[in-house]
Backbone:
């Protein structure tokens, strides 16, 4: 099989300039443990040219893979020969990319002419940072706090929502630690505006929450990676996930920032290969972006909740990710997550699966939610936002507001619960 894979990997390399045009995303439904192991072997082969959007975990969950056009015939033939069922989830990735870029250009032109900001559009880093400035400049509630700089020397900012006081009990929310998950950044932008608006209009429960706690919202946790998904000359890098730091392999940059935390670092569920999508880095918290966030949270010392936004698959999860045992607070965390998912569902009927990271999505060592929980931040949760596979990482901009609004219903429930259950 290795020889067979090498053939289509070579074809992909030869046609590297056409890697996106004609690419498809295949949805694979493994039916046995043998199928799972074959798919895992494919994923470990970083030279295959395949981009695994979701992972081979069990027969209950599909595996989504973006396949270069030049390799489609070989991959489909390989799957058929191994009796592994699949369907075409996205027929032409290039079409969605072109549509996404055209919408962004049109929106930028409209915003420039009208001096407005659309929450139903994706924005680049500069525009998001300008939005944060505008929000902070027009409200005494909000301040824009720099917590450090990235590997490429970009500033890292959080928005602090506070009615006053020093190091009060606080809630942390971040988005975009994986660069390609654009819906997480866009959702966080909408959330920032919603928190400010609800406080200004005295809309429950925000005033009550902010009377007792502060909220810290980091809209872009991986600025270098996010900029790369926008500015790279190749459309292939719209799907860049990692940071942009140098590694031991000069041909492969970046670290998966959600495998770099000091939480059972180096265990199963992360790779030691710098070319792998889930490369964990050379040591725990080796990456400046992770260091900055961890230092800020620990120096504050009074965070009561830690929530991180990802995409996609519609999951609401809690610790642990690194091991399959229940966390000490499992019954309460599961109950809170279940009720939060019901609150989310009440807006648009969107269904989320609830469970521990390990049992819901995959084993993951060095993840931020485990790090937070292991440091005493009991109410630690991870969201995987829309959708369940129709668009994957290319969720259309016309779904941003509805995604953000339903996410707000869940976050609002969790924040009120945390506020009402001090520890």
Residues:
């Amino acid at each position: 099989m290795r020889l067979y894979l090498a053939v289509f990997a070579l074809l992909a390399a030869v046609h590297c300039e056409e890697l996106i045009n004609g690419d498809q995303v295949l949805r694979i439904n493994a039916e046995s443990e043998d199928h799972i192991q074959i798919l895992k072997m494919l994923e470990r082969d970083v030279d295959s040219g395949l981009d695994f959007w979701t992972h081979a975990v069990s027969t209950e969950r599909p595996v989504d893979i973006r396949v270069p056009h030049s390799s489609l015939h070989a991959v489909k033939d390989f799957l058929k020969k191994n009796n592994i069922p699949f369907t075409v989830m996205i027929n032409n990735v290039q079409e969605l990319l072109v549509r996404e870029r055209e919408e962004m250009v049109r929106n930028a032109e409209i915003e420039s002419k009208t001096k407005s900001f659309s929450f139903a559009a994706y924005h680049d880093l500069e525009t998001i940072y300008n939005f944060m400035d505008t929000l902070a400049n027009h409200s005494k509630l909000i301040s824009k706090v720099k917590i450090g700089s990235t590997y490429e020397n970009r500033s890292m900012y959080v928005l602090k929502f506070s009615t006053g006081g020093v190091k009060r009990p606080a809630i942390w929310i971040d988005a975009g630690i994986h660069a390609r998950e654009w819906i997480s950044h866009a959702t966080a932008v909408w959330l920032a505006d919603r928190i400010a608006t609800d406080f200004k209009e005295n809309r429950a429960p925000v005033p009550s929450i902010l009377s007792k706690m502060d909220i810290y919202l980091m809209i872009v946790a991986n600025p270098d990676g996010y900029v790369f998904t926008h500015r790279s000359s190749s459309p292939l890098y719209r799907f860049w996930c990692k940071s942009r730091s140098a590694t031991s392999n000069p041909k492969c940059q970046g670290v998966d920032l959600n495998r770099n935390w000091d939480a059972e670092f180096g265990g199963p569920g992360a790779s030691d290969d710098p070319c792998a999508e889930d490369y964990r880095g050379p040591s725990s918290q080796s990456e400046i972006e992770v260091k900055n966030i961890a230092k800020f949270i620990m120096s504050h010392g009074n965070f009561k909740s830690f929530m991180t936004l990802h995409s996609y698959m519609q999951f609401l999860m809690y610790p642990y990710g690194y091991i399959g045992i229940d966390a000490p607070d499992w019954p309460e965390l599961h109950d809170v997550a279940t009720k939060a998912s019901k609150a989310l569902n009440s807006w648009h009927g969107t269904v989320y699966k609830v469970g521990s990271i390990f049992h819901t999505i995959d084993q993951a060592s060095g993840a931020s939610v485990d790090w937070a929980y292991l440091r005493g931040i009991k109410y630690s949760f991870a969201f995987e936002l829309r959708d369940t596979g129709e668009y994957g990482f290319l969720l259309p901009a016309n779904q941003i507001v509805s995604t953000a609004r339903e996410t707000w219903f869940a976050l609002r429930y969790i924040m009120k619960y945390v506020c009402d259950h001090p520890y």
Summary: The two ends are 55 Å apart (CA to CA).
